[in-house]
Amino acid sequence: MSSPKNGQAIHQHLVAIPRFQGASIEIEFMGDIDSDTLIDFIMNTSDHYNAYSPTVYLSQPVDSSSLLKIIGTPVSVGC
User: Fold this and answer.
1) N or C: which end of the chain has fewer CB within 10 A?
2) pTM
3) What share of the chain is helix, strand, coil (3-state, %, to 5)?
4) How far lies 19's CA from each of 24, 47, 49, in Å?
């Protein structure tokens, strides 16, 4: 992801998974969860077809070199 922030171009990788087993990254929600007028995401970042891992990325609190921060990543697995 790339975006200007405080007059500088910021580039940030959101997900890095070396291998997938019948799964892919899915954006499930894009909007302003934390009411700071910046975009936030919820993405399924599971690497396996039988798992679900909705990862919450918020634009606050972050340092000056980042755009988003992972707030939580619960994991659930099927049968």
Assistant:
1) C
2) 0.86
3) 0, 45, 55
4) 10, 7, 12
